[in-house]
Amino acid sequence: MARIMLATPDDDMRRYISGKLNLAVHYVSRVADFEVALTLLCESCFDVLIVSVDSEDAEGLAFAHEARRIDPDMRVVFLTGFAIVPLECRDDDEDGLYDRLGAPSH
C-alpha cells in the first residue's frame, strides 16, 4: 500500500483517480489547492505525488518542484491532457523521477 497525494483542481479527475487507487488498496489524499497540498507535504510523508499540469500555466510544475524540495525521495507523476509537456529534467533524472500520464487516465 502506497501513500499517495493526488493534487489537481479538477473535481472529476480527483474523484475518478482516487477511486481507482483506493480499489488498488492505496491510501490517497485528495487535494484541490496546491497551497494546501504543500502544507500537507510538510506535515506527512507520501510515497507518490500525482499532480496535474496545464500547458497554459506552470502552477502544477512549480508545485511539483517545491514538493520535491520538501521530500526529495517522493516519486512524482504528472497528469496532462497533452502528449508532450516540456519539463526541465536534469541529468539526475535517470531514475525516472518524472513520469507522465495523459488525461483522461484509464
Please, how many helices?
Answer: 3
Strand tally: 5
The SSE string, one letter per element, is: EHEHEHEE
Contiguous low-pLDDT stretches (5 residues minimum) are none
Main sheet record: 5 strands, parallel
Rg measurement, Å: 13 Å
How large a portion of the residues is in β-strands, by DSSP E? 15-25%
The overall pLDDT average reads 80
- The largest sheet has its strands arranged as 2-1-3-4-5
The helicity comes to 25-40%
- Inertia-based shape: globular
Spatial gap, N to C terminus:
20 Å
What is the structural class?
alpha/beta
Describe the structure.
Helix 2 (34-43) runs parallel beside helix 3. The two termini are 20 Å apart. The chain has helices spanning 11-23, 34-43, 59-70, and strands at 3-7, 27-31, 48-52, 75-80, 98-102. The model has no long low-confidence stretch (mean pLDDT 80). The chain has a five-stranded parallel sheet, with helices on both faces. It contains three helices and five strands. The chain is an alpha/beta fold and 106 residues long.
How do the strands and helices of this protein lay out in sequence?
Elements: E1 3-7, H1 11-23, E2 27-31, H2 34-43, E3 48-52, H3 59-70, E4 75-80, E5 98-102
Parallel strand pairs: 1-2, 1-3, 3-4, 4-5
Helix pairs in contact: 2-3
Brief digest:
By secondary structure, this protein is α/β, with parallel strands linked by helices. The protein contains 3 helices and 5 strands, in the order βαβαβαββ.
Notable traits:
106 residues, alpha/beta
